[in-house]
Design goal:
Structural class: alpha/beta
Bound molecules: glyoxylic acid, manganese (II) ion
Shape: globular
Distance between the termini: 25 Å
Helix content: 25-40%
Number of strands: 15
Largest sheet: 9 strands, mixed
Order of helices and strands: HHEEEHEHHHHEHEEEHEEEHEEHEHEH
Number of helices: 13
Amino acid sequence: MWDELQPIGRDPGTGGYRRYAWTPVDATLREWFTGAAEARGLEVVLDRAGNQWAWWGNPDETPGVVLGSHLDSVPDGGAFDGPLGVVSAFAALDGLPARPSTPIGIVNFADEEGARFGVACTGSRLLTGALRPEAALALRDGDGTALGEVIGVGPEHVGRDEQTLRRIGAFVELHVEQGRALVDTGDAVGIGASIWPHGRWRVELPGEANHAGTTALADRRDPMLALAALVQQVRASAQRHDALATCGKVAVSPNAVNAVPSSVTAWVDARGADEARVRAVLAEIEAAVVAAGGRLVEESWTGSTPFTPSLSRELQAILGPVPVLPTGAGHDAGVLATAGVPSAMLFVRNPTGVSHSPAEHAEESDCLAGVAALTAVLAGLL
Ligand code: GLV
Ligand code: MN
Ligand code: MN
């Protein structure tokens, strides 16, 4: 399975993956998912949010145990974030000694990274109703294409999907660790505890377009200076409040070497162990942005998200003493847990901790330990 997925959406220059939701590359990944499911006798259906579900048994009679993750990536992402959870789900199914009477589901969540339309976990948020259908359908990508034009579900059907939600008895998402906690504890596999509060904000910094060679410095309204101050402010505020904040995406207009820009748009991602410190970081950033004549708009916010404690305890009982870890990364399992769907996570050791990068990695032996743990969890929950 890993060999089949390896070339799909990989940029030969950077070695990173560009697997954006509802693009031709995503269609190829979805075909792969359907093929892997059908080869195992599972029935594949699309929900009202564009997520793919592969079912063994009839989940309308008895809710199933669901495994899976996502196949999309961030720009120039790694091979493991998402696909490891989907591949491990199929491998765990293969590892069962016999097919049970309890239904089993495997899910491929759509647009988990939000790389194309800007909202992370779009598929699970739409499924649970955390994202309103009108808001989702109106989201536009960088080329101006609306999500409603590409989601592959009629606009009148898009939205919270009660039937799909009723089918999920429990959801367990296996994921490559996006940090080095398991390196420090010396374990191949850990259990997720909770997701830090996190959000995304858009910063608009206006300026005045002008000639780079004829406009005196004193006469310029150059939004690049405000951007430089913003980047420094983001770092300083995160440091002051012991949080994380990143300015990782910028759009400069018109983006010409010999022109003072007319405007700059920048995006800020901020996360922290508790909501108060993330809000404190944002308050400082917003004050600086407003003082510079700009504005800050919240594009998404997710509060502190514990995974379902009773299910996590079941995983601990099945797996024995393994580390239980919080994470700063967002996941569909968190969205489901918040919506009241029993959800838990397993993490597989990442030797460098690097993620959202072509250098993201997990050793084959640790991936196999992850599959063994997921198989045990699946068998234990059935
Ligand atoms: C998703 O990986 C996120 O945490 O941004
Ligand atoms: Mn990710
Ligand atoms: Mn992920």
